[in-house]
Amino acid sequence: MEPQTHLVSDQVMAHATQGPLLTVRDLCVWFELRRWVFSRAGYVRAVDGISFDLYPGEILAVVGESGSGKSTLIRTLLGLHRPIRGTVSYLGRDLRTFTSQEMRWYRNTQVGYVQQDPYGALPPFMSIRQILEEPLIVGGIRDRRQRLERVCEVMEEVKLTPVEDFLFKFPHMLSGGQQQRVVIARAILMRPRLLIADEPVSMLDASIRVEILKLIQALQQRYHLSVIYVTHDLATASYFADRILVMYAGRVVEQAPIAELLAHPAHPYTAALLTALPDPDPENARLLKEIPPGEPPSLIAPPPGCRFHPRCPRILQGLCDREEPPDFEVGPQHHVACWLYRP
Question: Residues 232-263, buried b or exposed e (16+ Cβ, 10 A)?
């Protein structure tokens, strides 16, 4: 019997166009703070006015410091947070208009999620076979043989071979790299169109990070996946992303094709991130002095104007500290929110 969730796909696919797979417009996700039960203390503006498109087969990197709003953004894209303003649309449909059945179809079959901590993402009391069979059971596949065949197939795709050596092991019996391969296998099990990877290599040894990135890249190319790769590391983002969004304090300050951004960073924050990249040339050590001091601002009470202005070495007094900059186009598909580029 076909999974019931597949019946929903016809209703949602009817709204699909030749345009973006995912469309985000003016997205705001705030969390209310309370001193007491009936006393509101303010809001945490975790995501505050973000817009972008993700096209089929595209790899989009989302880069920023801890606390920039990256995790809140992807949880909203998964439908786990409800925005207070703005929209997230999949194939032209606003996620808020999805029925509970359609949202189940979206999360189970259309989006794969690779978590940052592989050990924390895997149930310790379930074997690898049970972990990978569970999404298939939820998807309505009742035939045990069919489920096992699919589990073995996906394990071979992520290089967990020979399969027989891993099927009945538990997560604690695997290395960190092997655990992350299980997480990736679970994410692609239902053949999703979108893969969201939340810092998938940050908790792994440096020796196997490239292997995991190559695996994700190979799967993306094989199945023409759209990928949102979330990271704080521009070096890994430059490894395989097509386009990049730079986030700071809940806002997107710059977005561009990866080659354009690396060659011509426009925003002072992006330039600071690039100078912080490791460089084997000792002559370039002096560039590290250009990294602005300080910490990202509080998301409860962000500063007026540009949120980077307290740390910016190129601040325009009376403008950057008073008015929030709009997006300026400084090149093909290259946008930056900085008053330095006003016409």
Answer: bbbebbbbbbebbbbbbbbbbbbbbbbebbbe
Distances (CA, A) of 273 to 63, 169, 260, 262, 278: 10, 41, 15, 10, 11
**Can you tell me the distance from the alpha carbon of 6 to that of 95, in angstroms, rounded to the nearest whole number?**
17
pLDDT in single tens digits along all 343 residues of the chain: 334 444 344 444 444 446 899 999 999 999 988 777 666 778 899 999 999 999 999 999 999 888 899 999 999 999 999 999 999 999 999 999 999 999 999 999 999 999 989 989 999 999 999 999 999 998 888 899 999 999 999 999 999 999 999 999 999 999 999 999 999 999 999 999 999 999 998 888 888 888 999 999 999 999 999 999 999 888 888 888 999 999 999 999 999 999 999 999 999 999 988 887 665 555 555 444 456 777 888 888 899 999 999 999 899 999 999 999 999 999 989 999 999 999 8
State the DSSP string of 43-95: EEEEEEEEEEEE-TT-EEEEE--TTSSHHHHHHHHTTSS--SEEEEEETTEEG
Pairing state of beta strands 22-36 and 39-54? antiparallel
Provide the whole-model pTM: 0.89
Q: Tell me which residue of 281, 277, 304, 306 sits closest to 290, measured CA to CA.
A: 277
